[in-house]
DNA sequence: AAAAGGCCCAACCGCGGTGCA
DNA sequence: GTGCACCGCGGTTGGGCCTTT
């Protein structure tokens, strides 16, 4: 545009070319170069801000919002145009792993890039990657973020005050979560009042979540990454091999075993089985907050695409269970003191069960030997803490036992053979699977939300088997 | 060559936060 | 304390372009 050209003449030009109808109507749609010129002119004269005044003073028939957006995304002189460089791409991935869908914050870290640009890039990228069955986050990024967050965890004051800090911290913003579903959970878990020492309905679990699970309960975006590993056996073996096992960082996470254990196929979960990972959990109430803003659920693997129906979370269920089951006793034995690292809900459940069981007749003891021993020494208080963390619906594990138990509603999903399942749980199905694998497979089926109604009695038995007690005789069920 | 489908990106919408009267 | 205006953020939409069939 020629210098000195008045805003007015530009407006006239806009009026001629654009599809402005009447002055009283604000124009929408694509910006014309004339409009751009007006806006640039205006900002040069008056500076940024006060965007609503643009319309008044410059005659532009655009709302302030639209002007701001146009300026911020396209007209700002410091904007970097063109494709993202590999460095920028990597930075975005890292930032997303750290921040989640905080586009504006990410943009602040990438000079010349806009939040919209980054958002579009990311959305496109994850679509592409997920279509290809590739992980959203490269393992090294996960590890990097995990490590850095672990450091911040390590720098926390003392463990004693952990709980209170946890409840007070605002460091990580996470939504308060409606726990409609949890009411049903309580039906199952009510035998453990201590365990559920939380309001049944709305529970503000956001505080301290990040401390509790530094990346352990990473925002869903990491779950996505994790879930993608399900379809990436090679990466699984690459990343989750033994040298990572004892990595304090990795063991810090309920996802510890994610990479090493989530490969359904390696656990005898047949491809296409809509186990937990693809259970069509769809909360009756939409989850609120940032996590909810994230992708509804791209948590599916290539194996699961057919059965993928709006899966909203359940991935962690398997993780929690699996990490519990597969964690070497040594590792757990070291965990005399609770750390937020332990994936806890199932442990808590199991622990409670142990407690109850020990006060009852021990006739079923044999059937409970699979997993309980490793976790029986977990202090309940710790379990409570842990459970709170898990109850955050954004916590991957929140949907672990809680949702898994609660979502055993009639509906979709094929149920596996119950007898086999129980056998699996008990690790004695006689197949070539290792007991643990069997258990996982069984648990997967057990935890499947879409369990048929007719399975309910079986489910109860299964829970009993899992918990090592006959729930039919238990007053707590 | 044409239709269909997918991709990409600019722009819009709704909501929440903040400042001010 | 309340209402209003403004601003910023994140999710969603719609249209143009490209690729595939």
UniProtKB/TrEMBL annotation:
Its main location: nucleus. Residues 23-75, 76-130 form the HTH myb-type domain. It is found in: Nucleus. InterPro entries: Homeodomain-like_sf, Myb_dom, SANT/Myb. Residues 258-267 have a biased composition (Polar residues). Keywords: DNA-binding, Nucleus, Repeat, Transcription, Transcription regulation. Residues 254-285, 396-418 are annotated as: Disordered. SMART domains: SANT (SM00717). It comes from the Eukaryota. Residues 396-416 have a biased composition (Low complexity). CDD domains: SANT. Residues 23-75, 76-126 form the Myb-like domain. This is Transcription factor GAMYB. It comes from Hibiscus sabdariffa.
